[in-house]
Amino acid sequence: MDYKAAERIQDLQYFGEFGGVNPSISDSSTYTFLTAKTMFDTFEGNTEGCYLYSRHSSPSNLYLGEAMAQLEGTESANVFASGMGAISAVIMQLCDSGDHIVCSRTIYGGTYAFLKNFLKKFNITTSFLDITDLDVVANAITPKTKMIYCEAISNPLLEVADIASLSKLAKKHNIPLVVDNTFSPLNIGAAQLGADIVVHSLTKFINGSSDCVAGAVCGTKDFCLGLKDVNNGAGMLFGSTLDSLRAASILKNMRTLHIRIKKHSENAHYLAKQFERDGLKVVYPGLESHPGHELMKTQMNHEYGFGGMLTLDVGSLDQANALMELMQKEKLGYLAVSLGFYKTLFSASGTSTSSEIPEEEQKQLGLSQGLIRFSIGLDNDIHKTYLSMRNCMETLGILSPDTALV
Ligand code: PLP
């Protein structure tokens, strides 16, 4: 697949006010107009080249939006104050009261809670199902269904969605396919594979420094303008606007995304292979044992690898907690939620980022209490990291010292 997203991002050139190599930051909430007529026209939606008010748009947010559009290869993109700000705006923009959503059953806990609990207020219902079973997905679509929603690589179980097939199905029913590509920016070109709308939490890999929350929606120009509409736009009216200073700093971090993703993937793949040889219960899309491995190979951009996320099931919550505490003590990473940091981050998903999903449902999904989700960091010597992690597991009896070192 000819995937030139990194080159497209690199080719974007915006100069600062005084010829700076970075664009100037728009440090204003409001903008002056030379004539009252232009102000009126801007309110009417003729916004080309004009700024109104920073909740609507600002130069810094447009620059970052442009970079996000280049990442996904979409016509346009809007940025938001968080991933959930982006996701909730898309869903509220597409659904009316009484509508229905078809959604993967393994998704980020916040998205699950929004769909399952919050949307009850609007009588919007969601069928949570196995997104890898296309017949099940097709059978769940009703005349009230307004979208198919999934994550390209799911949080936390790392299921791989067949985006091209889901897109065909969505098109057949004339509904959009919305894909959250937070776990796999550059690894998977979700829009290129057929997603109509791609959402991202920029908080994670894209920003990469765990210092802010932000989100983005990538889609057609019409959809993105609609989100900003002063009368009906969920982005404009819910007001989950990203601050310009943050937009500027995320844009700068995004320029190294291609290098970071390659290293995250290389390190995660190395650890996954070693853990599997050690007989541990590891899940990683790059392993042949992963049920989505072959599919992943057909839809990934190979130079970026299989991504930086893996899971390890160590049998019980007590063991998981003990291992995470020990790994943190040994400076192997942080016991923290989130992902995409230079340090490895680990958390037990069932009691943290997926705790919104009732325990009974977690069991049905195969999300056990002993499952640790790892976001693998940019460690320079990953073999050394592996040996130290192995030591921690031996200390806790998770791994027998007799297991041969490879
Ligand atoms: N989507 C996925 C896959 C996530 O993992 C998260 C957060 O963990 C979100 C969306 C929400 O993003 P944010 O925390 O930026 O609102």
TrEMBL record:
Residue positions, PTM N6-(pyridoxal phosphate)lysine: 204
Cofactors demanded by this protein: pyridoxal 5'-phosphate
Record protein name field: Aminotransferase class I/II-fold pyridoxal phosphate-dependent enzyme
Family of this protein: Belongs to the trans-sulfuration enzymes family.
Taxonomic lineage of the native organism: Bacteria, Pseudomonadati, Bacteroidota, Flavobacteriia, Flavobacteriales
UniProt-recorded Gene Ontology molecular function terms: carbon-sulfur lyase activity; pyridoxal phosphate binding; transaminase activity
Pfam families attached to this UniProt entry: Cys_Met_Meta_PP (PF01053)
Keyword terms of this UniProt record: Aminotransferase, Pyridoxal phosphate, Transferase
